[in-house]
Amino acid sequence: MSSNLPKVAWIGLGIMGSPMSENLIKAGYHVTGHTLEQAKVDRLVAAGGRGAASVAEAVRDADVVVTMVPASPQVEAVAYGPDGILENAKAGALLIDMSSITPQTSVDLAENAKAKGIRVLDAPVSGGEAGAIEAVLSIMVGGEQADFDAARPLLEVLGKTVVRCGPHGSGQTVKAANQLVVAVNIQACAEAVVFLEKSGVDLGAALDVLAGGLAGSTVLARKRDNFLKRDFAPGFRIDLHHKDMGIVTDAARDVGAALPVGAVVAQLVASLRAQGDGGLDHSALLRSVERLSGSQV
Fold first, then answer.
1. Mean pLDDT calculated for residue range 119-146
2. Which of these, 176, 280, 202, lies nearest to 288 by C-alpha position?
3. Could you tell me if 153 and 256 lie in one domain?
4. Active site includes 175?
5. Are residues 235 and 190 in the same domain?
6. How many angstroms separate the Cα of 152 from the Cα of each of 129, 141, 163, 164?
7. Of 5, 110, 119, 269, which sees the most CB atoms within 10 A?
8. Domain limit, last residue, from 166, 188, 212
9. Structural domains in the chain (count)
C-alpha cells in the first residue's frame, strides 16, 4: 500500500460499497471499513482492508471518509451524534458521501460539517453493481472546486465519468434526474418486451436489432439478460428506486418542473413494491407490465 495516498475510512459495505472499497484497496489505498453486517467487514479484511467496530473507530485517523448507505436517514445516522463522523473525524478531513439522498440533506450536511472543519462532497453514482465492480461508474459531484480537485484521483479509481456539477447538492440533483431517466427507460423496455413476446417475435433477435438503433441504450444493454431470462437478482433494488423516485418527484415539485411520465413510472415502481417485489432488481418492472397484460407472474 502506498504511504503517500490518503487514508480512507469507508462506511457502508453493501452491493455497491463492497466492490468500490475493494477497488481502492487494489489501487494501493489503506481502507478501514465499517458496516452493520460483520460478514461484509470480514470480506473487506479478506481483500486487504482493515475492519472497524464503529463509525467513530473507522474515521478517527482518516484523511478521507466515504459513505455509501441506502438513504438520507442512514447518512444522518452515521454523520451526526456523539458516535458519528462529524464528532470523530479530524479537522481537515474530506467527507465524500456517495449515497443517493435528497439534495437538501447534502446541503445541510455540508453546512454542519463546515463548523467542524470537515469538507464535504456529495458524489452519488450511476452504473449499478456491474459498474461498481468494473470501476466504470458515472460519478456526479456537488461541492467546492478545490475539494473536488482533491478527491478526483480517488474518484477516478471508482468511476470512468467523474464530473463536478456545481455547489453542494448538485450531485444529488443530477442523480435524481439520472434515476428518472433510468426508470422511464426500463419501463419502456419492459413494455416493448411484453409487446414483442405477445406478438410471437424472437425476443433475443428483436432486442439485438433494437440495441443497434436509436432505441439502443445502456439500460437495454445492461438489462437485456434480466429481461430474457427473467433474472431479477438485485443489482439495484426496486426499494431503492422507489426512494429515488420520491426524491426526484419532490425536488421537481419544489422547483416547479412537471414530470408527467416520471410520475406515472413512480407509481408503477410503488405498485411493484406494494406487491412484494421491492427486493428485486429494478428490471422487474417487467413483472408489473406482465401483470397488467394478463400474464401470471
1. 97
2. 280
3. no
4. yes
5. yes
6. 21, 10, 9, 10
7. 269
8. 166
9. 2
In a domain, residue 2? The reply is no
Asked if residue 200 lies in contact with residue 275, where contact means CB atoms within 8 angstroms, the answer is no
Judgement on whether residues 89 and 131 belong to the same structural domain of the protein: yes
Catalytic residue of the set 26, 116, 160, 175: 175
pLDDT digits (tens, 9 = 90+) for 216-260: 999 999 999 999 999 999 989 999 999 999 999 999 999 999 999
Per-residue pLDDT, 117: 98
Give CA–CA dist 71/18, Å, rounded: 17
pLDDT band at 3 (very low <50, low <70, confident <90, very high): low
pLDDT of residue 297: 87
**Full DSSP string of 41-87:** HHHHHHTT-EE-SSHHHHHTT-SEEEE--SSHHHHHHHHSSTTSHHH
Rounded percentage of the chain residues whose pLDDT exceeds 70: 99
Q: What is the DSSP letter of 283?
A: G
Q: Which residue, 166, 192, 222, sits at the end of a domain?
A: 166
On whether both 88 and 206 belong to a single domain, the answer is no
DSSP element (H, E) containing 244:
helix 238-255
Q: Is the pTM of this model over 0.85?
A: yes
- pLDDT score for 180: 98
* Whole-number Å distance between alpha carbons of 118 and 19: 26
265 and 235 in a single domain? The answer is: yes
| pLDDT bracket for residue 169 (50, 70, 90) | very high
DSSP structural state of residue 90: P
